[in-house]
Design brief:
This protein is an alpha/beta fold. The protein folds into three domains: about 40 residues; about 150 residues, no CATH class; about 280 residues, Leucine-rich repeat, LRR (right-handed beta-alpha superhelix), CATH 3.80.10.10. It contains 22 helices and 16 strands. The strands form three sheets. The protein has a twelve-stranded parallel beta sheet with strand order 1-2-3-6-7-8-9-10-11-12-13-15, sandwiched between helices. Strands 4-5 form a two-stranded antiparallel sheet. The protein is globular, with a radius of gyration of 29 Å.
Amino acid sequence: MLLFLSVPQPRPPGARTRAGAARVARWRRQRLRLQQLRRLRGLLRGLRGRPGAGSRRRGRMALCGQAAGAASLPSELIVHIFSFLPAPDRLRASASCSHWRECLFYPALWPQLRICLRVSPTEQPRLEFLMRKCGWFVRELRVEFAAENYLSGGGGPGDGGGADTGTGGEEVEALQLSARWLEVLRTYLELVLCVLVSIRNNRNLQKFSLFGDISVLQQQGSLSNTYLSKVDPDGKKIKQIQQLFEEILSNSRQLKWLSCGFMLELVTPTSLSSLNSIANTMEHLSLLDNNIPGNSTLITTVELERFMNLRSLALDFCDFTAEMARVLTDSNHVPLQRLSLLVHSVSVMHKSLDNMPNDEHWKALSRKSTSLRVYIMAFDIKSEDMLKILKPSIPLERIHFDSYITCVSGAIVDLISRQYDKFLTHFILMNDVIDTSGFPDLSDNRNEDPLVLLAWRCTKLSLLAIHGYTVWAHNLIAIARLRGSDLKVLEVTEESIDFDQGELADQDVDPVHNLIEQVSLGLGQPWHAVMDIESLSVFTEPNRHFYREMQSFSEDI
């Protein structure tokens, strides 16, 4: 007679409680993962040769056996091993043999692809290889085109070392810069074509994001159509790019996320008509391009009605009208949760602010979605225009000012701190001035500094970045003490900080050391001023910074 005794199995923590169901599932997943890792370690130990001490011949034979064993593994097992490794380790492991390299670009290993490219001919072969391998199956594709620094100024190594002077030298420099611009635009078009051609038949694409840095494509703030006409005289490449983009949109049956920022001649007012079949399932849409001429827009109110499932939206502020706000409050639309708006002086110059939403529209949007949050970036906007834009009922969570000519006033900062004290978490104030000896002082003729009031009123403030405005040392200490450890990021450039005469006159205390010590104590973490402004991407590449922040802001739902 056999007697079967059941051995009690270890019960996962929280198994008897309904609240512990999630913990049980997590515990089981961790246990399964641990078992897989143990099996993987055993497999790798079995492949590893163990030559005996003092026997070189046996060592060589073991290594040969190891290589042969690795090469004979089935593809499924190699892919499984790759799945445990980060991307750099996968590349190193694939160097072992051709069989492993063949498994490197298995679709399951590359669900997303994020590429940042310099607009340079040397990038094209690499891009072609990567897109040829992954373009047909990748689910999430993000491509950014980065600026070449040498285009921002005049001379380079080939400028003749400054031998030419006067009008002749200026003409030579202009010709050299023109030649470089032509090369950049020509390369840019080729890179964009490479990306679009490789994904035209991708049926798995779910997220598609393209960013083209306008500092590459613009000169002195306006697009040089002269250069573009020389590179593409008949407009054939531009037309091909636009047709490919529309073909991709029409072929994509799973696309949920579409984001295009500052892409030269890519999106047209008719592009979104290609999304007719999936418009009602799109969850994110961002179309940012301040170069659209006249009163034309990339999306109309009628088109927006088709996007009933949008949870996040990013547009030029002048394109976001009162009618669009009304459409988003309709009952057949899901509540919008993230709205990013770009206010650019170029758009304000050519388009009217008369059609923007009023305070009642913002109230209706907030009632429709209590979790709605807004992100605004303002490029060189006058104070009177900002006063029109900043309606009291906007649930403003982030605001970024970037100025070249028009400075932000203390009244605007004070208004923001009073109206958005319940929502504001990010406040960025950048002023790209040439003369660093005379930064504007926001606290001028005021009893209280507007930045200190901002820190006092906005209790959710977690990021504050300032350059090009005078920040007094004692006010900076007050800001750190008011927000404490909740202020995760405090970035103030060294040249923006000023000291009272009394602080400078005290011979017993080093004012700079005292500032660093007091701010660090207030924040509860080590702090120092930003010494090199070029290290701040928010200053050197404001468009790219806004685009990336908009992406993360929209994903944080």
